[in-house]
Structures are given as structure tokens and as C-alpha cells.
Specification:
Layout: H1 14-34, H2 42-45, H3 53-65, E1 71-72, E2 84-87, E3 96-102, E4 108-116, E5 119-127, E6 131-140, E7 149-156, E8 163-168, E9 174-175, E10 181-182, E11 187-190, E12 193-197, E13 206-213, E14 223-232, E15 235-243, E16 250-258, E17 264-271, E18 277-285, E19 288-293, E20 303-304, E21 321-326, E22 340-347, E23 353-362, E24 367-370, E25 379-382, E26 389-397, E27 402-413, H4 414-427, E28 432-437, E29 440-446, H5 456-466, E30 476-478
Antiparallel strand pairs: 1-3, 2-3, 3-4, 4-5, 6-7, 7-8, 8-11, 9-10, 12-13, 13-14, 14-15, 16-17, 17-18, 18-19, 18-20, 21-22, 22-23, 23-24, 24-30, 25-26, 26-27, 27-29, 28-29
Amino acid sequence: MDNASDTNAKPGSKSFMRRSLLIGAVALLLGLATGCRYTAAPADLLQKPAIAPEKQAIVQAIEKSLPDYSKLTLPMREDHMEAIRLIDVDGDGIDEAIVSYYNEYSSPELMVFKYTSMTWKPWVLVQQPLARVIDWLKIEDLDKDGQVEIMIGWIGAFDSPNVLEIYSFSTKPVRNDAGKLILKPVETLPYSYGDTGDINGDGRLELAIISEIGTNQEMAMPEFHLTLYNWRDGGVHKLYTEELYNDVNNYDRLLIGRISTERSGIILEASTGAHSTYTTMYAWDRNKLKLVYPAGPGKLEGLNGTPTMSKDMDGDGILEIPWAKEAPGYPDISYAESKWLNEWMQWDGKVDFVKISEQFTDYRYGIQLRIPDPWMGRYTLHNPEEEFAFVAIDYWNEAIDLTSALATLYAVPQKQWESVEAGWKQEGKPYRQLMTDSGNVFAVSFVKEVPEEWEETDRQAFKEMAGVEAEFTSSLSIRND
């Protein structure tokens, strides 16, 4: 391979830039070849990975064909986070390679490679000269006709607007001013956020786009709109437009899917301050969107005091929304010291929401704790002061303002676990090792004795809560996203 063995290449030289591009391509191709995320210690990355011959050919083609000083890049949002994607875009039964990168002018582009005559050759460029970032990339067959469409959410540079552009390989490439073949967009739409999904149950994907107007100095507050499109006969057709709640910073997330056992809909999430989130849910009803949540002033207002992310949290195929609440019993602590809980709520398809689960998440360690049933309504959480402890769980009786330590969760670095465990054993501290993840050993310590001075009802409740210790591990999971 040209320059691949040039050990004397200097930064800034052409051979150095080619080697840098090659190293990046090889690392990213690991994900392509294995189909999963690759993480390894730095020493592991020094070993040359084994790559199939056809993928080595792609790396060579990329190295030779991309402009000097180019750098492979990932879109900010994509289903498959790879800079090199193999997919049949033109329906001829042979995969093309789609590569995302910054060119020599630091502008984002896609280059599509075709495999012809046993060689990978550059075929066509996809570019937006006024863009500075690829926010979203989606490659889908929207109308299920056997040919894919490429959707790109471009973030504009300087005063250029953000746009969503849709490209189809059923259109003929044209030559740009530099004589290179480019694929021109079939559609260009105002864009702030977008996603695809089958909202009306017709078996084809709809395109949902959030757009905003009035973000310049002429208007104090932007106006947000949600528009649904479908793709027919090589173009987009508007299905429905909804004016959105405007008192937010920005809409940051959109999910399309089932929102009850029989209904499909859309969930939107927006940031409203440094920490707070606004959530809204719409059902698709009689060819339009119907607001399901929030339901009205003073009831189900949609605001959460901490960032939340809706999802199908129990794997039943239905999207739930989290209602965030501060752990009770500590009204005078600061926001930074507060512990937050999520009540996961599922719409019943009519007017009410049903709580599916209650959960505590610590994002520093990725730990999620599903609150056991015996704890419901009689527990609280707070920040512990003990070394390696990240949450303290208390028994809590609201009626008599009674709190008492029940259990403490710890995250101990693996390299320190042996000495920490030895110290706990020496002092007779009860503990249970739970799991190991990301270089930490997780453990829990339950209080064994119930205060003698308590009333019998509190003593019995405390014993029931402490009784979950043996099955406590089943209540914990690790977020890896």
C-alpha cells in the first residue's frame, strides 16, 4: 500500500496524512467487520487487526481517493455509527461503500465507492458546501420500492440555515464545477431534528421533521413546528403539520412507535433550562396528531426537573415516558445534592397513565436501580459521605418524618477492591459484591439491625425492605449507551 510503511513520515506531510487516514479507517472498519462496538486498552490497539481482503481493498481505495488532509468523521446521530458503510444503494445487488469525512476545507461530505472490475472506485459525491457538520444520517428505503434514500441533516456554517436534504440514487449524478460527479438533493427541507418511523400503520416509513423559525434577533422566541411527510413517486408529500410548545430551548429528541397497546404516536423531548426537560406525546388518530401528554394546566404538565429520555424500558414494544421526581424527605438540600427518581409511565390508550416501574439512575457509573416493590412509598435516597459510596438508601415514614439508613451502594475501582474489601472484613462491615463493570466493583451494604425504639409497624416495614438483599442484584443493570 502506498506510504503505508513509511516510518519516517512527518506531521503535515502527505505520507503522514495518508497514514493517519489509514489508521482511522482500519480502526473504524473493526466495527464494520464485527458489527459491534470495539473497546480496548491502548496496548491492544497497537496490534495490527486482521481485516478480510475485500475490506483491505476498501481501505486502499479510501486512502488513494479522498482529498489530502481529509479526516474520517461520524455523523452526530446515526443508527450504525461507522464512517464506512457497506450497503446496496442502487438496487443492483452489489454493495457500495459510503464514507463520511471532512474534506481539505473542513467541510463534511459523503463519498460513494462502487466495486467494479474487482476494484473499489470512487463513484459519486454527496456534499453541502454551506454545512459545517453532519447532524443526522439515515439510509432507508422509505417507500419499500427496493431503492434506498439517503437523508442528511446538515448543520449550517456561520449564518447558513440547517437543512434536511434527501438524495435518491434513481436520479442521475451531475458534474460539479471541479468536474466531479455529485448527487444533487431531490428535496431540501427546513430542519432542526428528524427521524423516521411507520406512524400510520401502512407498512412504509414516514419522515418526521422538527423545524424552527424566528431564531434571529427580530423575534424574541422561535416557533417550532413538527411536520410529517411520506415519500411517493420520488418526492416528499406533506401529511400533517403541528405547531409545538415554544417555551423551550430546543427540541432534542423524537421517537416514533407504539405508545399504547393499540395506538402509534410520537414522543418529543426538549430542553427548557440548564437541567430541565419538557416531554410531549401525540397519538396518530384519524389522519392527524392528537395531544396525549401533557393533558392540561396543573395536571401532567410535561416538565421534568432533570434530563429524561423516553424509551421502551420494559421491552414490551410500547414506549414509556419518565416522570422525574426528587427523592423525598430532604427538602432543604441543593439541586446538585438531590437524588432523582424516574416513574416510568405507559399510556393506557384513553386518558390515563399507568406506572410500569420506578427507577434510580446514576449516570456517572451507568447504574440503573429498579426500585423493589417492598420499597414503594417508604424509602428515600441521599448523597452519602463515605468513600466510594454513591447513593444511600433510607427507610422513610412520611407521616412521622422518620428516616433511617437501610443500605448503601458503592463503586470501588478494581485496583483498590482488594484492600477495601480487606478493610471491610476487618471492621465487620456487612456487604455483598454485586457486579464488575468499566473498571469498578459494585457492592451493597445493608443495615442488619432494626432500631429497638421503633413502633412495631415501622420495624416490620424495615424488615420487609431489607429482605430484598438476596435478590438485590436482579434489580440492578448497567447502561452502556
